[in-house]
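Morning. Coffee machine broken again, so started the prediction first thing and wrote up yesterday's gels while waiting. Chain of 240 residues, entered below exactly as on the submission form.
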Amino acid sequence: MTLDTPRPLSESVSVVLVHGAFVDASGWRKVYYTLSEEGYEVLVVQNSAVTFEQDVERTKSVIAEAKHPVVLVGHSYGGAVITEAGIEEKVLSLVYLAAFVPDAGESVFDLASQAVPGAETAPLLPPKDGFIKIDPQKFAAAFSADIDPAEAQFMAAAQRPWGLEAVQGKITSAAWKTKPSFYLLATEDRMIPAQAQAAMAARAGAAVVEVSSSHAVMLSQPDEVAELITTAAEPNQQRS
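Came back before lunch.
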């Protein structure tokens, strides 16, 4: 590459991936490889899912490690984390994947408690020792109905308990009010109803792409996820 040749976009933007509840960062594997092969620096946050504040600080720490301006991506509960952490100056844009998008003063619990007419409720077990889990017998149907059944079964068995302090953590600053936002709406989601996703995306003024997917969109539709992240990285998508 000569000095006169512009650097490819992928070499001037970093991507930070933030997973949601009940899973860990390994769910990003397909998206990670796709974006890495395109030349992006891709960093992955491993949430504690114990307290909201801890997960926000972990995400801010990873943002600080990035070599370039950041496209910040959050799945499910990770949407709340990126809403708070995305206020960092280094963040260019936000990408929400079947995610919660709280406003200041709201928590994931507040949003998840809002009834959606005609929609199924997530099959959560009663809290135990300060954590909640999905009923393992109903995990696949609710969370990951469109991936390999064996993988969905393992995810149910290996699910990571979600701390009530993380669920109830309140947003203090909503980054989507000042950063361009993008939303991948999973129409077949049985954890966060599509109607709720649409309402949150509209409130945030996010550009919406719909995809026929379960809640586990990063596993079932990794190419669509990577494509939206790439779109969010384009300079003409950034607000002045």
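Confidence is low (pLDDT under 50) at residues 1-6. Going to sketch it on the whiteboard this afternoon.
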